[in-house]
Amino acid sequence: MPDTIPAPALPVGHYGYDQVDRAFLADRVEQFRDQVARRIAGTLSEDEFKPLRLMNGLYLQLHAYMLRVAIPYGVLDSRQMRELAHIARTYDRDYGHFTTRQNLQFNWIRLEDTPDILARLADVDMHAIQTSGNCIRNVTCDQFAGAAQDELVDPRVHAEILRQWSTLHPEFTFLPRKFKIAISGSPNDRVAARFHDIGLVAKPAPDGGTQFDVFVGGGMGRTPIVGVHLRDDLPEEDLLAYLEAMVRVYNEYGRRDNIYKARIKILVQALGTEGYRQKVDAEFASMNRARYRLPPETVAAIRARFGTPDLNAPDDAAAQFDRARRADPAFDRWVRTNTHPHRAPGYISAVISLKPAGGIPGDATSAQMDTVADLADRYAFGEIRVTHMQNLVLGHVRQDELHALWQALRAADLASANIGLIGDIIACPGLDYCALANARSIPIAQKLGARFASPELQETIGPIEIKISGCINACGHHHAGHIGILGVDKKGEEFFQLTLGGSPGSDASVGQILGPALPEDATVDAIARLVDAYLVHRTGGERFLDTYRRLGAALFKDAVYATA
Amino acid sequence: MPLHENGSLLEDGRLVPDAWTTLDAESPLPATGPVIVPLSRLEEGLARPHDEKLGVALPQDAEIDTLRTALPRLSLVAVTFPIFRDGRAFSQARALREHLHFTGEIRATGKPLPDQYEFLLRCGVSTVALPAGSDPDIWARAHTRFRTAYQPSVRGERAEGFALRRLLG
Q1: HEC string of A101-143?
Q2: Which of A2, A133, A150, A152 is nearest to A70 (CA)?
Q3: Cβ separation of A24 and B147 shorter than 8 Å?
Q4: Cβ(A429)–Cβ(A442) under 8 Å?
């Protein structure tokens, strides 16, 4: 049947499925339909069903089933975005939640609807495979890939290769714990490579090909650790062989007796970097390298299934853009915060903030999803990226069309000018949704957003990353926040512990606990005092993080606790 | 098809007779016939006449290398899944094929899920001792569920023609 549907043009920015990929997904949907039918009929117990539903991204949360849909390397096309909007409208409560792993979660799903939802996703070449379980999860990527001025290699082709390689991998689908890989192609790390189980940074090789910097054993959770640098010269043709060796060593030696000690970071710490490297090298040396070789022809074949944008801006695009900025200060402010330089003359990348003041970070309504899809078609080759900061990006926008795009975004309440600023908060779903949480993260994010709503104030404060986790599992990345907020339970009451000095980037660091946890109603005020102290003590163009690193915690501790 | 009785063995999605006797840590070693001994009794097994078939049951935390010298004498290695989530046996099976070039039977024991069947085969497992209460039909369906895979395996499947894809079955 699929043979009769004409193949659409290749999607810009991500891999275009062929009939074999579609047949595979159809088989997968039928497999799950069969499993759900067995569960509803009672022939599968919840215990037996649990691993099967988890392999299709279906979690049982506090109040309902949650379905996590994979968005490989964070790139989707307008057709896929419209389908997500349709699913949100039809099967959920008219919204979806974009996650820090560049995926999308539906929070109010009925079990009996999931086979149909997966079938609808498969119609647009999407799935929920390996969005949970102790397997290799969605490979995340730089949100400005293929567009950024500072990029050396577009990492999305390799991200797709890793997606395919890890899909139903026979050996690595029952690892000691979940496994997260991030890949960047820029020396400016925007993927938190050093906070992943494996972080890869692609760069040009001396022979003109591609090679990789490899980081391993980073992570957050209960034991935040900055990953170690394993090697800097991994040739492209050995990419899969070397990853096989890295993951095999983990599968064989990673701890399975305690889920809090089961991530690869614990193994790397236990063996030491050198000990782990020796085991990987021994495995790499004895494996059948020819079997796992990634030949340049394979890379080229996958690259050929990526659509590429026809970048062709008019000569006066930049001049028109300058005029619009001078004429419209509100637009100019949004441009200063919500855009990123593009490699091609006359183009720019635009970030659509999903952090309106007082809103829920990462949520988008069905109507907003449809609007973004329409705008992507009109202005950005139909391509949309999800960022690990839970925002959206249109990667290739003509500079002379940016003002019109901004006006359309503003009309849809999608033009908050706060990217990288204090309003651009990451928050986990917290106790509003999650069975693991100790505290509600979302209300704190909403109150902070409202407190610092003024765009002028946010721009005065400058770059600062606030990240909120509702429990020690750290899904809100609080360890990597310039200001981290961790929800803790004190005798049944929600308290919040502050950490300062974390960073996810090339200068990765783990934040340090500032002092005793604060009650909820004192937390927002305490952060306001922290920010005031920073504004008093900063010099030049110093970011909050730089001031903290220069002056240490003492003055911030005074600011928070002196009046508390 | 009725639920299987203890001792049912699956090969290529079909129930097959099992000629092997699995020994525990104490039972006396029979003088003849194919037996699977625990790793702790490997020396004892190796002392049997060389024309008697010998297999060994490998715990999930054992290093494959412990079998290196004995392997030419072994016709079968049993790997085990104490719970389905413990995936170490996948790596053990794959290493037996890839590193030690073992060509005998690799048998999966313990509590694997039918949904893991194709993974087992692709890591080099040849037979599955079905967990008590298994429905062999579900295992058989799992075997034919997918037509392609996205990566090479020690089974050496034919390339599908694009990228790393392989044709299953």
Answers
A1: CCCEEEEEECHHHHHHHHHHHHHCCCCCCCCCCCCECCCEECC
A2: A133
A3: yes
A4: yes
What is chain B's pLDDT, residue by residue, as a tens digit (169 residues)? 333 344 699 999 999 999 999 999 999 999 899 999 999 999 999 999 999 999 999 999 999 999 999 999 999 999 999 999 999 999 999 999 999 999 999 999 999 999 999 999 999 999 999 998 899 999 999 999 999 999 999 999 999 999 999 999 7
Comparing CB atoms, the residue among A31, A55, A175 nearest residue B145 is A31
Cβ–Cβ contact A52 with B under 8 A: yes
Identify whether the C-beta of residue A144 lies closer than 8 Å to the C-beta of residue A101. Answer: no
What does the alpha-carbon distance between residue A217 and residue A229 come to, in Å, rounded to a whole number? 9
| Mutation for A interface: B97, B143, B151, most A CBs within 10 A | B151
CA separation, residue A189 to residues A25, A57, A78, B127 (Å): 33, 28, 27, 47
Q: Any CB–CB contact under 8 A between B83 and chain A?
A: no
Query: Taking CB atoms and an 8 Å cutoff, what residues of chain A touch B119?
Result: 168, 170-171, 173
Spatial separation of the C-alpha atoms in residues B78 and B62, rounded to whole Å: 12
Q: Per the CB < 8 Å rule, is A173 touching B87?
A: yes
User: Among A398, A378, A456, A397, which residue's Cα sits nearest to residue A423?
Assistant: A456
Question: How are strands ordered across the β-sheet holding B127-129?
Answer: B14-16, B9-11, B127-129, B105-110, B76-81, B54-57, B35-38, B21-22
Q: CA-to-CA distance for A428 and A443, rounded, in angstroms?
A: 11
CA A534 to chain centre: 29
CB-based contact A174 B85, cutoff 8 Å? yes
Instruction: List the single residue in A with minimal CA-CA distance to B122.
Output: A170
The amino acid at A196: H
Residues facing residue A199 across a β-bridge: A182, A215
- The residues, ordered by sequence, that sit 6+ positions from B84 with a Cβ below 8 Å of its Cβ are A51, A174, B111, B112, B113, B116
B113, A51: Cβ pair inside 8 Å?
Answer: yes
Type of residue at A171: E
Q: Which uninterrupted H or E stretch holds A68?
A: strand A65-69
Question: Cβ–Cβ of B88/A251 closer than 8 Å?
Answer: yes
Chain-chain contact of A51 with B86 (C-beta, under 8 angstroms): no
B78: three-class secondary structure by DSSP? strand
Query: CA A74 to CA A138: how far, in whole Å?
Result: 9
Which residue, A479, A498, A480, is CA-closest to A488? A498
Task: Output the CATH code of domain B9-167.
Answer: 3.20.20.70
In order of A167, A428, A536, the CA distances from A389 in angstroms are 25, 11, 28
Domains and CATH numbers, chain A: 2-123 (3.90.480.20), 140-303 (3.30.413.10), 317-411 (3.90.480.20), 426-561 (3.30.413.10)
